[in-house]
Design goal:
With about 300 residues, this protein is an alpha/beta fold. It has helices at about 10-20, 30-45, 50-65, 70-75, 80-95, 205-210, 270-275; strands at about 115-120, 120, 130-140, 150-155, 175-180, 185-190, 195-200, 215-220, 220-225, 235-240, 260-265, 280-285, 285-290. The chain has 2 domains: about 5-50, no CATH class; about 75-290, Aromatic compound dioxygenase (Protocatechuate 3,4-Dioxygenase, subunit A, Sandwich), CATH 2.60.130. Helix content is about 25%, strand content about 20%. The chain binds 3,4-dihydroxybenzoic acid (DHB) and fe (iii) ion.
Length: about 300
Amino acid sequence: MREKLLYTAQVKALIDKVAGLDNAEGDQRLKKIVARVVTDLMQTIEDFDVSPTEFWAAASYLEKVGMSHEMGLLIPGLGLEHFLDLRMDQEERAAGLIGGTPRTIEGPLYIEGAPLSKGEARLDQDPETGEVLFMDGQVKDAAGKPVAGAIVDVWHANTAGWYSHFDQSQTPFNLRRRIETDEDGRYKFRSMLPAGYGVPPDGPTNELLAAIGRHGKRPAHIHFFVSAPGYRKLTTQINIDGDPLLHDDFAFATRDELIPAITHHTDPAEINARGLNEPFATITFDFTMHKEAADLPKAVVERAHAA
Ligand code: DHB
Ligand code: FE
């Protein structure tokens, strides 16, 4: 067995210098985190006998992830965005917050400033073939009281699995809207049932996933931010029930409480009554929000968005 360099005085002194632990300047918490990350990396190199060639391949890989703007894809793929959710859940439980609609990951594809309307909206503005979806529900507080004036910020992929803004073939804000709940806390929208999503097949995220025997696909889903003055912001998604990948999401975002029943309507009279010619789907889903309070962990996650 080779001697563990990591435990030698020489490498310990190196890490202290690297992390600035041998001086009094800078941010003390950051120094400790830098020291830990560098130490863990050195330990990985040592334990797995990582060669310099392998190490530089990993460095190039990370550079490629950044240059491809795939940090936001790799992080959920590595389960880290879900882990952050689990930690926020744990903190809330410790603060006595229980129940309510579960959070799940935001993902990298939100765009700020979608058109805002009262009570209802139509999300699909570009022509598409697929199944029309009508979704509705109520925003309530933990006691079941409707929350009027809440903003339901909704975004999802098109019937091919692509998101507007990132997919230049769609018009701006296609399948992205903000809906203000009415006096009964209700929202509703018309859209097209999304297809599942897959990471770019030729990108670095998929490269790593393939190399470890994984896929980069997500079941069909619809994202939501729900916010209202005095309430804790909710970041969540619903899954489209029946998707074969429902419990095989590369981003680990599926939660049992977030799989509402979907009804596929084929009755010609119902189709006619909606002014349609084809079968359509309906989903009803209520959101339960918690009241904000000073002693609770922060609900808002600050994060840079594409613009
Ligand atoms: C990714 C894509 C999504 O649509 C999503 O909701 C979460 C993650 C991704 O590409 O990583
Ligand atoms: Fe998504």
